[in-house]
Design a protein that fits this description.
Layout lengths: L6 H16 L29 H4 L4 E4 L2 E4 L6 E7 L4 H8 L2 H9 L3 E7 L2 H6 L3 H14 L3 H10 L12 H8 L8 H9 L3 H13 L7 E4 L14 H10 L4
Parallel strand pairs: 3-4
Antiparallel strand pairs: 1-2, 2-4, 3-5
Length: 245
């Protein structure tokens, strides 16, 4: 008997996809079928990024469907594909992304982010879209790098929970000095960047990347099985081996 996959199966597929992306394995994208819907939004444990001082030094700007962090003249480029609800993206942001931010603050690398939202389709809800829109709004406020890290640090433990509501996204913003304000708050509550979020998802789909997180160094996947992106020291060495030092 055929039919739509259960919410449990869809959720397992999403986690498998995220894990495969973390390990640099090429797999098919998550099923486009919907489950029974996301669970009720959870109250987030809001956290600030532990390396906020480093992140505060990083400029960011929107370039089409991407957000570019760091010096435009940096000799190297690291491209990152993430979905805000992806648990392995949060693991990357808490580990491999820390030395990456340090190199960016030193002007040695710029980071190009493509923010996907495919997990909303697979798990139900709108948390990924809401978060991506808030992240785009934080660029205008000059606080993207800090907010981006705080958002992943505050990610709901259950990726099926549609926890990135407007209220929760604003609570996370409270952890970033200088971010809250009339323009940012309005953009979050009114989905000002809805069209941009859709274009970012399309850019993800058109890129040929089929999992998150996917990290490319100067356009290439790191050598090895890809697990280094989930270990700060290991990924720092990978970056150095790529000439970023």
């Amino acid at each position: 008997m055929t039919g739509r996959p259960s919410a449990r199966k869809v959720r397992r597929a999403a986690v498998a996809l995220a894990l495969a992306g973390a390990l640099g394995v090429s797999v098919a994208a998550c099923s486009s079928g919907s489950g029974s819907g996301a669970s009720a939004p959870a109250e987030l444990e809001v956290k600030a990024a532990p390396h906020a001082a480093t992140l505060a030094k990083l400029p960011a700007k929107a370039e089409g469907a991407e957000i570019v962090v760091g010096s435009p003249s940096a000799a190297h480029t690291v491209t990152v594909y993430e979905d805000p609800r992806c648990p392995y993206c949060a693991k990357f942001e808490a580990s491999g992304a820390v030395p990456l931010a340090e190199f960016a603050a030193q002007g040695k690398v710029k980071i190009r982010y493509t923010l996907a939202s495919f997990l909303d389709r697979n798990l139900g809800g709108s948390g990924s879209k809401n978060a991506a829109g808030a992240l785009r709004a934080s660029v205008d406020a000059g606080r993207f790098a800090e907010y981006h890290a705080a958002l992943f640090a505050s990610q709901p433990e259950d990726e099926g929970s549609d926890g990135y509501t407007a209220d929760n996204l604003l609570k996370i913003a409270d952890k970033v000095p200088g971010l809250r304000g009339a323009a940012f708050d309005k953009a979050v509550r009114e989905n000002t960047y809805k069209s941009w979020v859709a274009s970012a998802e399309k850019a993800f789909e058109d890129s040929g990347v089929n999992s998150s997180p996917t990290v490319l160094i100067d356009g290439k996947r790191p050598a090895g099985d890809g697990s280094a992106i989930l270990d700060a020291d290991a990924f720092a060495q990978v970056l150095k081996d790529a000439g970023i030092s």
